[in-house]
Amino acid sequence: GLKPRLTDERELKQAFEDAFKEAIGDTPGNKGFEVVGVSICYNYRHVWSDVNQMTDRLMERVELEHQDETTAGLPRGQEVAAQISFEHTTAWDEDGQQEQIAKDRAQAQRWFADDGGDEKLNSTGEAFVVFRHHGDMNLVFDRKADVSEKLQSLAAEDFSVELNKVFSEPPSINWWHLSVGDSERKQNVQIAMVKILGLITLVQLCIVYPYAHFIVAS
Asked: Which tens digits make up the pLDDT trace of 31-80?
């Protein structure tokens, strides 16, 4: 429900952080509330073809830059066949690729620059807000109604700002430790050590010691 013209990530970050702090106040558990950043969802529907072509050209450049890695380890004779040359790209030659890079960079700057005029991209009215600590997000959603009210100045006409939880983490990678403070992490390590020692002691007393006593007694 955000205004489409709001595309300054720094300003949005500060606005969200101020609204969250004001709505949450001195709530227990609020320890240095911090928003890491804001990622805006841009509406590029009218230039999607240009974006796709630019992405394809970027992939071509990446393949050329890393072709030595892709051909490493291939049997002799297959390396040449696997080599990627400028002739196999949309640029045809190195000069053409440099020209493409300059044009793509200039176009991207017009899409995101404040003075981009009519070419400047607006947002879809959605944005991702990234929190430093998992607990801060929970505090915000505990006061969801108050937070939404504080954010109404950012809302588009006839819309209200809505909040939804989103968890986005790389698969098979646990980033939980990044949202835990040093003191809490040390405490968790100490608790884990106590549990491990307790488990070892329990095994010794309940299994090893009775078995040893039985062997000695017999």
From this structure: 567 788 888 888 888 888 888 888 888 887 777 766 655 555 555 544 44
Nearest to 216 by CA among 203, 208, 200: 208
Helix intervals (H) in the chain: 9-24, 48-65, 67-71, 78-82, 94-112, 134-142, 144-150, 182-203, 209-217
Task: Output the six-digit token pair for 116.
Answer: 């981009």
Cβ-contact 138, 125 below 8 angstroms: no
Can you tell me the distance from the alpha carbon of 121 to that of 113, in angstroms, rounded to the nearest whole number? 9
- N-to-C CA span, the chain: 79
The Cα–Cα gap between 188 and 186 comes to 5
CA-to-CA distance for 21 and 33, rounded, in angstroms?
Answer: 7
**pTM of the predicted structure, to 2 decimals:** 0.53
Q: Which single residue is written with the structure tokens 């509330």?
A: 33
